[in-house]
Design goal:
- It is a single chain.
- With 863 residues, the protein is an alpha+beta fold.
- It is built from 25 helices and 39 strands.
- Strands 1, 5, 6, 7, 8, 9, 10, 11 and 12 form a 9-stranded antiparallel β-sheet that branches. A 6-stranded antiparallel β-sheet has the order 13-14-15-16-18-17.
- Helix 12 packs across helix 13.
- The longest helix has 22 residues.
- It starts with a helix and ends with a strand.
Length: 863
């Protein structure tokens, strides 16, 4: 007798020995996912499979989890023990509409290529997470990584989207509390986590550390700011009360400074003031109230000057944000550019009201407090009345006492590049005698201070129109100048100097020096904003040509023509996927599923390697339809690799910003160096860009490849290949052949927003090996490998048996091989070449009496 799905899941997991505390996270009120093995698809019932005895399907409870969740339990007619491959939970209570636990996944990169972290980083993650009382640590289901889970005090979340937003916010809090950037290393945040899967090792989900406390909504008051990021409406969280565009520009120009012990102490003390304190991990800034900062400065006796005119009437409403500076310092900015504040606050070139906190005061601050006026002809120079100069010097940490005889003269204070101050005033040659501690030059008395202060130089003054750039590995790229029409143009340094001399004659040399010391990093990050933060400039980062559909549920995404392309072009994978344990465990049950996961990884993990796709078949079979469809989504992200593969010069600049490179006109079997370049570009972590008149520089590799050809041999696939997925694309049946330009491409454009929604929201399978998806062996690929075997490899397969530790005299081996060879091949296979061409596992060794042996095989007996 069948029992309901809700009861069946709990009963099955109990039978598998799942711990009671984990079972509680899979009860009828909790969101659950069940993956199943593949089988023959039932006609007209997508996602339903059969083996002739049962019909079964994957389970997601509830339906429409991203909108208004709904679920009606039903009798489960098939046994989970036979057909389920994995069962997992998210920690979201869909009935009570609340989050009860959020989960994070950190995997070892050696078992999860590209997405995971190194063993050393994994050890550091574990060490940092153990410090957090509200974090539970378990081994992952594979045993190679860890799941961190955070129990929460029933925080109301209306759907799975809000649950994921809460998890994202909590991850930022964990980073602050542990002084460690968890967000940069997490694989999975707030989504589905397995509690059972087939083949799970004995230590899978082993408890390493229990949580001692739970978080409340008061611990993460801004979690709703993350909803727009989770739904791809924004790339970063919004800082309430500020102008988004201006803040984005400002935040992007800041160097990323890690938390230190003093920062953590300041943060703890701020939290104790009763004012709202929020750490924004996306923008790497802290929001709080100026009154809270003033309290903390006095309590901790921090250095520098800080005052505010705010009365702090509403502690729950922040009025400022702060960027971290080295050695426990902050730069504090009021929310509204240009807002009035206490003396000592500064105005940036773009209008922000700001002040340093727990940092040495600046000359510009002193000028605002003690009557200094900017010298228009000299950089970092202010002119003070005598009394103001004495006060300014004391404020800056220097003793300056002027004789009565000179107190009627203005005093100039200059800050040199090394941070030392120079004081000077006019010299009256007829009346001035010797002044102790001062040096007389032709016209002035001069004295240099031993105190070192911060220059307070305003990079904002030039950052928005002049920049120098470097690559991610530190190589110089060049200078850029913003033209009057708002476009950034590459220019030589001499042009930069001329422009600066005309606009800022006294500051030109300092601007160039500062720009050289604080270059922007030129990056190419697909689907990221122009300014991802940390002074990174994503000048040419590709973007999707369509907005993601504003859907509230995966059930509503509708893209039949995209499904049609994937189903047709990956059909050759249907059979081998049924025999793949990885595919069954991860719910990749058809070639269409594999193709969808490949494209989704291209978008969501562009810097992780994927299999090289090779499609071959007759003319007009549709083998080019996949890369043509992807080009509709990212026109600037797809380019031809034919010329970079063929040219002998090695120039490959056209591939710099692409995420997908296509090969259509190149027979790789006859193109020198092409196969070697592809082998490197498919899996290398760094892609070296070579352009004319530009230094070679490296960038993180984001290239992925699709090759199409009429003939199978155009992509030489050799035995042992671990990079290429080869699919034969069958001729189209009459009902499949639709006009590409008039019907297929227009329909793909119409469905693109829905397809993008699926790509960004579908659960991705776990990586396996060095590629984010495993290479699936098709009959087509095996045939290609056979046809590309050398005569020596064919002989070993046919006439020898692998036997570890066995060895055969090379003399006997070669005699048998030479006899076996066709007459036409014999001239090419001498003894020396045969010895060199042996596979590595059958390398030759010298044995007794210097005789040469072939290892790890024996010759088959002749019949």
């Amino acid at each position: 007798m069948s029992i309901g799905v809700d009861e069946a899941i709990v009963a099955f997991l109990k039978s598998q020995g799942v711990a009671d505390d984990l079972l509680a996270q899979l009860g009828p009120e909790m969101e659950v996912q069940v993956n199943v093995i593949g089988g023959e698809q039932v006609a007209d019932r997508p996602g339903v499979f059969t083996d002739g005895l049962d019909k079964w399907w994957a389970i997601r409870r509830p339906k429409k989890a991203y909108a208004e969740p709904e679920w009606a339990d039903y009798a489960l007619p098939w046994p989970l023990a036979k057909y389920a491959t994995a069962i997992g939970r998210t920690g979201w209570n869909w009935v009570k509409r609340r989050s009860e636990i959020v989960l994070f996944d950190f995997d070892d990169i050696t078992s999860h290529a590209g997405v995971g972290v190194s063993k050393e980083e994994l050890d550091q993650i574990l060490k940092k997470a153990k410090k957090l009382a509200y974090v539970e640590i378990r081994r992952s289901t594979g045993g190679a990584g860890f799941h961190l889970s955070v129990p929460v005090d029933h925080i109301p979340t209306a759907n799975h989207t809000e649950h994921a937003a809460l998890a994202r916010c909590i991850l930022g809090k964990m980073s602050v509390d542990a002084e460690y950037d968890f967000a940069a290393r997490v694989d999975n945040c707030g989504n589905n986590f397995w509690v059972w899967r087939r083949g799970m090792p004995a230590n899978g989900l082993e408890l390493v550390k229990a949580a001692e406390t739970q978080l409340t909504e008061g611990d993460v008051p801004n979690w709703r700011d993350h909803v727009d990021v989770v739904t791809k409406k924004r790339s970063k969280t919004r800082v309430q009360g500020t102008d988004d565009a201006k803040l984005d520009d400002l935040a992007a120009s800041q160097k990323i400074i890690p938390f230190d012990e003093t920062h953590k102490q300041i943060l703890d003390e701020l939290s104790a003031t009763g004012y709202t304190v929020i750490w924004d991990a996306d923008n790497h800034l802290l929001t709080t109230h100026t009154c809270a900062l003033k309290e903390v400065k006095e309590r901790l006796k921090l250095v520098g000057y800080f005052e505010t005119i705010s009365e702090g009437k509403d502690p729950g409403a922040p009025n400022c944000f702060c960027f971290l500076r080295p050695n426990g310092g902050l730069d504090v900015f009021r929310f509204s550019p240009g807002v009035a504040e206490a003396p000592g606050w500064l105005q940036s070139e773009s209008g922000w009201t700001h002040i340093p906190f727990n940092r040495k005061p600046t000359l510009k601050q002193a000028a605002g407090l003690f009557g200094g006026k900017k010298d228009p002809d000299r950089a970092n120079t202010y002119v003070f009345p005598a009394e103001g100069a004495e006060q300014a010097a004391a404020f800056l940490g220097e003793t300056l006492v002027l004789d009565k005889s000179v107190r009627d003269r203005d005093v100039t204070i200059t800050v040199k590049r090394d941070g030392k101050m120079v004081f000077s005033f006019d010299r009256a040659k007829k009346t001035d005698g010797k002044i102790d501690g001062w040096i007389a030059d032709k016209t002035r008395w001069v004295r240099e201070s031993d105190a070192v202060i911060e220059s307070g130089y305003d990079a904002d003054k030039y950052d928005n129109f002049i920049r120098t750039t470097k690559s991610e590995n530190g190589n110089r790229i060049g200078w850029f100048l913003k033209s009057r029409d708002g476009k950034w143009l590459p220019v030589p340094k001499d042009d930069v100097r001329d422009v600066l001399k005309a606009r800022f004659p006294s500051d030109a040399q300092f601007i160039i020096a500062d720009a050289c010391e604080m270059p922007w990093t030129d990056v190419s990050i697909p689907f990221a904003p122009e300014y991802p933060g940390g002074r990174r400039w994503n000048r040419n980062g590709i973007q999707a040509a369509f907005e993601v559909a504003d859907l509230q549920s995966l059930d509503e995404a509708h893209h039949p023509h995209w499904d049609r392309v994937l189903r047709r072009i990956f059909r050759d994978l249907n059979k081998p996927l049924k025999e793949s344990a990885w595919a069954q465990e991860n719910g990749i049950l058809t070639g269409q599923d594999y193709g969808l996961a490949w494209v989704a990884n291209l978008f969501r993990h562009p810097f992780s390697p994927l299999p090289y796709l090779f499609f071959h078949g007759d003319e007009n079979c549709g083998k080019s339809s996949l890369h043509e469809a992807i080009k509709l989504l990212i026109p600037d992200g797809v380019t031809s690799a034919d010329d970079p593969l063929k040219n002998q010069s090695g120039f490959n600049g056209q591939l710099r910003d692409a995420v997908l490179a296509t090969v259509e006109e190149t027979d790789l079997s006859t193109t020198k160096n092409a196969l070697l370049r592809i082998k490197d570009w498919v899996t290398a972590k760094t892609f070296y860009v070579r352009q004319m008149r530009t230094d070679i520089y490296g960038q993180p590799n984001k290239l992925h490849f699709i090759q199409v050809a009429n003939y199978r041999f155009h992509c030489p696939i050799f035995p042992g290949d671990t990079r290429i997925v080869a699919c034969y694309v069958e001729p189209m049946l009459p009902d499949e052949d639709i006009d590409k330009d008039k019907e297929l491409l227009p329909r793909l454009r119409e469905e693109a927003p829905h397809f993008l929604y699926t790509l960004w929201n579908m659960p991705l399978p776990k990586p396996m090996g060095r590629l984010n998806l495993p290479v699936i062996e098709t009959e087509s690929k095996r045939a290609a490998q056979e046809s590309n075997k050398s005569p020596l490899e064919t002989f070993i397969d046919a006439e020898c048996e692998f036997s570890l530790g066995e060895k055969v005299l090379f003399k006997d081996f070669y005699e048998r091989f030479f006899t076996w060879l066709d007459a036409d091949d014999k001239p090419h296979w001498g003894k020396k070449w045969t010895s060199k061409a042996l596979p590595e596992r059958h390398a030759t060794i010298r044995g007794h009496e210097h005789k040469v042996f072939v290892t790890n095989l024996k010759l088959k007996d002749r019949k």
